[in-house]
Amino acid sequence: MSITYLEAIREAQARALADDPRVFIYGQDVGAFGGAFKATKNLAVEFPGRVLDAPISEDAMVGAAIGAAIEGFRPIVEMQFADFSTPGLNQIINHAASLYWRTNVPCPITVRLPSGGTSGSGPFHSQSMEAIYAHYPGLIVMTPATVEDAYSMLLEAVAIDDPVIFCEHKYLYYHLKAPCLPTEAMPVGKARIARAGRDLTIVAYSAMLHEALAAAEEMAGEGTEIEVVDLRSIKPLDTDTVVASVARTGRLLCVGEAWPWGGVAAEVIARVATEGFDLLDAPPQRLNAKDTPIPYHPDLWSVHRPTARSIVAAARNLLRM
Amino acid sequence: MLLSRVLDEKMASLYRGGKIHGGVFLGRGQEALSVSVGLALRKGDVFAPLIRDGAGRLAFGEPVLDAVRTYLGSALGSMRGRDGNVHRGRPREGLFPMISHLGAMISVVNGALLARRFKKVEGVVGATCIGDGGTSTGAFHEALNQAAIEKLPLVLVVANNQYAYSTPNSREFACRDLADKAIGYGVAAHKVDGTDLEKCLHTLREAVAQARGGGGPQLVVAQLLRLCGHGEHDDAQYISAQFKQSHFGRDCLKVAEDHLLGRAWADDASIRKFREEAALEVEQAVALVQHEPGPDPYKENWCALASRHLSERFETPDSAASR
Questions:
Q1: What is the CATH code for A3-178?
Q2: pTM exceeds 0.90 for this model
Q3: Regarding beta strands A23-27 and A74-78, do their DSSP bridges make them parallel or antiparallel, or are they unpaired?
Q4: Between A54, A94, A101, which is nearest B82 by CB?
Q5: Longest C-alpha distance within chain B, in Å?
Q6: What is the pLDDT of residues B90-135, one digit of tens each?
Q7: How far apart are CA B193 and CA B173, in angstroms?
Q8: How far apart are the CA of B307 and the nearest CA of chain A, in angstroms?
Q9: Which CATH entry fits the domain spanning B2-321: 3.40.50.970, 3.40.50.300, 3.40.50.720, 2.120.10.30?
Q10: Which residues 132-151 of B are in CB contact (within 8 Å) with A?
């Protein structure tokens, strides 16, 4: 018996629907079809009237979720791909994110973004949008990297009184498995030491955690001990855990699948430079996707985003500094 | 309608006297339509007014104090100085505060109506207003289509005041009549002369009753003219003299007063008395609010999240030093 990352997302939604009558799901093809990735498989049957197919209208999908939230509901909006959240950006960043600040009325909506690259998906089905959403005050941005976190953080997302952008990674949907669903969870806002080490800290999140862990494993064979920090959520960002890790290792490499400009890796480096400059034995480094649209061809794609191989190369460079 | 006009005039006068920070946006010329929306709704309904709906707000039950406090930035207002002027409301009481992005409120009203349906609350109507320019947005299209699909009791009121800020209808749409859009969405359409209070009252009552009775979304399109600038900063020199002299250039408040006088439902003295009462109410509210405190930036929690424990503290050298 094992459960995949995708099944964990489906199970979390089933439990949220079962536990709380205020929860409903709204998105394209989420009803009888069960969603483009089957993250809502059978939920429309199990919870009649609470899993609604939406027209291809991302702005109106989020707007309706906001209206329902004002009325006390806790909607989950499924964007078919993270890339397609941009037509709904206005309602998310200007409306949902500002509502509590302006009116004192919370806006507990969860927007699920099937994020990140998979081979052959190309420029418009591969994007990682977390930095854009994290830029705006009033939003929580979660980036689970494990089956356990996908389950427990999605349940926490639904329970939180603020709008949550839930970035679930499509690359992990089918391949990542756990023996069972978790019974305990770390709270949102706490990063996790995914692998302990003393020579260099790699900060990663979402699918890049697994590339970083593979890189750390490879370098362990060379006698280098790499510490890997899984951010889990990028807003709030657990600066304390990152700085404490850098205090142990003296070297920092931040890895993100998203583009470099104004990204999460840049933010982590800014915080470590501000709060822990004297802990650094070498200039902090970042490794991101190349600053181009995401390519279709697998040979281009495999070089476009960071991989265990490029992380090893960056880590070796950093250790030589 | 009269109270709204008097309140608007007072806000404009305070603006000119430098007493209001930010813009002031009047509903002059649109009161007959707006008040008819507010009067057709009842407690328990949802209303998302737009920029020129002071009259509709008052008719729906928004206190004069809410308007004055938001314009003057009182910490005691519903927006607590965090948002200003027409961006005010009480979401929990069904009065939704607009964001500036046109068309955005329509789907939010849809969502509230969906929620009422989930709760099995029947006989509720949601109304929201927009201008001719707002019909050009994608949000307008998405939301009206969404309401039609879900057969929601939505009343969408378009005040065609001929100009979106300075842009005339000819640069906003090419259809013969905005009401013709209804057929494309599969919703009912109503057309009304927005300068005529009696007709507006009748049309809005009819549209709201149809929505309440299960008739699905209702698109109401009113023809009128904005008798002021986009805001008080705007002299509206772009509004053509031809429009100003046309039927739609007449003042709906004057038309309504003449109607009362013509039917002998009121005389000059009683209309004067109505105006004096309205002026007194507004003056009292302003006098009260002018003595109220503004928000204190040093006591502000600067936290955008309801979940305060998840809020990040962004330290800067000066904030760290001040601790």
A1: 3.40.50.970
A2: yes
A3: parallel
A4: A101
A5: 72
A6: 999 999 999 999 999 999 999 999 999 999 999 999 999 999 999 9
A7: 20
A8: 6
A9: 3.40.50.970
A10: 138-139, 142-143, 145-146, 149
